[in-house]
Amino acid sequence: MPQGAAIAMAGLTGVSGAVALLTGLVGLRRIRRLRRAGVDVWAMVKRTGPVGDADHPRPLLQFTTKDGRVMEVGSPAPASKRRPLAGGSHVLVRYDPDDPRELVLYGHERTSWEYAFTGLGAVFLLVSTGLLLG
Predict the structure, then answer these.
(1) Are 78 and 102 in contact (CB under 8 A)?
(2) pTM, to two decimals
(3) Which among 36, 73, 86, 121 is least buried, having the fewest CB atoms inside 10 angstroms?
(4) Torsion of CA 83, 22, 128, 4, to 10 degrees
(5) Which is nearest to 123 in space by CA: 11, 13, 8, 9?
(6) pLDDT by residue (tens digit) across 46-86?
(7) Phi and psi at residue 114, in whole multiples of 5°?
């Protein structure tokens, strides 16, 4: 492979890896912060106004904050067979007291996706380094 093409490929791979790595690390930090400082509350699942695409609808979750505000936030996770999120049911969520729109479904934080992004980003950075040195 010509020198310029190798450098371009290494640069593209490195930038992609850095973006994936940072995305994973930011997601893990957010989950860790919500686990540590978040407030647990029961939210009612509302089927009106799903958020997301047609294949994976994300219903609205309605809950009341500690200070009495009623919030309606799109579910951070889509409905699934394991967790159907049926309209009218209640789920436990953990929200950020500083920004109640930021929340996670209790026990459904999806950390595996964040670890996958972090690992894939690290691999891409290593491949980029190998292309530059090779």
Answers:
(1) no
(2) 0.69
(3) 36
(4) 120
(5) 13
(6) 875 555 566 666 789 999 999 999 999 988 887 777 777 88
(7) -65, -40
